[in-house]
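Re: that backbone. Tokens:
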């Protein structure tokens, strides 16, 4: 059984491998089949067979369909069938009359799909770009145009364009087929010559045409005048005969017309009377109706104008009222907002001042607490330290109090009762002593002057020799 199972496995693997090989071969064969588009010619080159004479073919050209390309021995390429437009501005081409002319033209060429010409295209144009093919065809066209112009007169080229284009097409296409091209279209835009011969021919033809037209017009005018005269003659004869017959009939009919006119006038007069009466009655009725309608219209107009005026006044008054109410509310709201803003500003300012004062007092309290700690937790010693620190400022304040006093004039009445005989000196001394002593200042503040400053601390002004009276003192009794 094991041998049979192994044999079955070998056969299955062999079949799978065979299938893979066959599939790969099929894909390869399909990939080597190349299709030729309608606007291209497929050129197969390499080992492509032999000609009738036994020579090897250079290429095999296919237009449309498909072709199997043998690997390793064949390759393929495409020739584009898109038409190529070539502008040929031929100048100074010599005609048969030895007159140089300019023949600007445009040729449209393309690769031919004829069997033999395709072979020429494959041999001479394969691998060339469109501009290279254009230049090659342009050189051929230039040469053939010069050759054709040299065999024709200017009159033939200018007047018989079909003959010229046929000669160009025949010669140019013959040469283009040698390289695998065919001529699709030729368009000669204009023909000019440097001597003005073609222009002169045009003027001659135009003058001849004008003269022929004038002659034809004159002949037609002549024939028309003769015919007109004959027609006038016949007209006068026939009119005279008809007039005589008509006058006779008119005389007979005038009597009948007069009788008929009389009857007609009587009938018209009666009809006119009845019509005028009816018109007067209708006019009066229409005028009455018009007056009634105008009265109704005036009443309606008066009512409308009254309503319009009332609406205008009431609406304008109501609008003005609403405007003033809105304006007053806006002003009140503005005042309220301004007041709230000012109150908020004052509150913010006072709050800031309070925070600043709180911060100052907090810092002062903290500093005094540190000072007390530095004085050994003795508040009295801390106060003394503060006083000692501020002593210089206190002395300065006392000095400044009378330092800048200026006495323009002092009058002292001396009654001679002074013990030292100098009332003026006593006045100055009393003035200096009027400043409170330092001990009194401390007592007024509820504090005691430190012992080391003395109990009877004299005023600073007594200790300061700079303070003196700068003004002269006048006494009624001057003592020398």
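Recovered sequence:
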């Amino acid at each position: 059984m094991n041998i049979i199972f192994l044999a079955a496995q070998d056969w299955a693997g062999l079949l799978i491998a065979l299938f893979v090989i066959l599939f790969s071969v099929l894909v390869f064969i399909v990939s080597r089949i190349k299709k030729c588009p309608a606007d291209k010619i497929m050129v197969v080159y390499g080992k492509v067979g032999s000609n009738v004479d036994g020579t090897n073919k250079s290429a095999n050209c296919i237009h449309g369909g498909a072709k199997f390309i043998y690997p390793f021995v064949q390759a393929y390429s495409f020739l584009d069938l898109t038409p190529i437009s070539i502008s040929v501005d031929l100048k100074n081409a010599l005609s048969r009359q030895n007159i140089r002319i300019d023949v600007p033209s445009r040729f449209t060429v393309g690769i031919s799909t004829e069997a033999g010409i395709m072979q020429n295209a494959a041999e001479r144009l394969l691998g060339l770009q469109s501009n290279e093919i254009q230049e090659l065809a342009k050189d051929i066209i230039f040469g053939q145009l010069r050759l054709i112009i040299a065999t024709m007169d200017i009159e033939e080229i200018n007047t018989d364009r079909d003959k010229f284009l046929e000669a160009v097409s025949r010669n140019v296409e013959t040469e283009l087929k040698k390289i695998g091209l065919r001529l699709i279209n030729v368009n000669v835009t204009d023909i000019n010559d440097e001597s003005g011969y073609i222009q002169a021919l045009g003027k001659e033809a135009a003058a001849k045409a004008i003269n022929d037209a004038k002659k034809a017009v004159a002949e037609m005018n002549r024939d028309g005048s003769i015919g007109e005269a004959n027609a006038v003659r016949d007209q006068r004869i026939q009119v005279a005969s008809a007039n005589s017959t008509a006058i006779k009939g008119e005389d007979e009919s005038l009597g009948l017309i007069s009788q008929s006119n009389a009857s007609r006038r009587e009938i018209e007069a009666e009809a006119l009377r009845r019509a005028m009466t009816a018109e007067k009655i209708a006019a009066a009725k229409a005028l009455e109706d018009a007056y009634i309608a105008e009265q109704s219209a005036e009443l309606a107009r008066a009512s409308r104008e009254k309503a319009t005026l009332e609406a205008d006044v009431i609406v304008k008054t109501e609008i003005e009222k609403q405007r003033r109410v809105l304006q007053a509310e806006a002003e009140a709201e503005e005042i309220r907002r301004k007041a709230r803003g000012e109150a908020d500003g004052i509150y913010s300012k006072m709050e800031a001042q309070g925070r600043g004062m709180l911060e100052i007092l907090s810092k002062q309290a903290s500093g005094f607490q540190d000072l007390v700690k530095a004085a050994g937790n003795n508040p009295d010693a801390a106060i003394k330290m503060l006083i000692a620190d501020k002593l210089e400022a206190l002395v300065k304040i006392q000095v400044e109090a009378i330092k800048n006093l200026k006495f323009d004039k002092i009058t002292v009445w001396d009654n001679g009762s002074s013990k030292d005989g100098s009332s003026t000196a006593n006045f100055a001394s009393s003035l200096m002593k009027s400043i409170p002593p330092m001990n009194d200042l401390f007592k007024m503040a509820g504090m005691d002057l430190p012992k080391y400053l003395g109990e009877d601390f004299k005023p600073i002004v007594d200790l300061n020799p700079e303070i003196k009276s700068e003004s002269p003192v006048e006494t009624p009794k001057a003592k020398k």
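Confidence is low (pLDDT under 50) at residues 455-480. The first strand starts at residue 33 and ends at 35.
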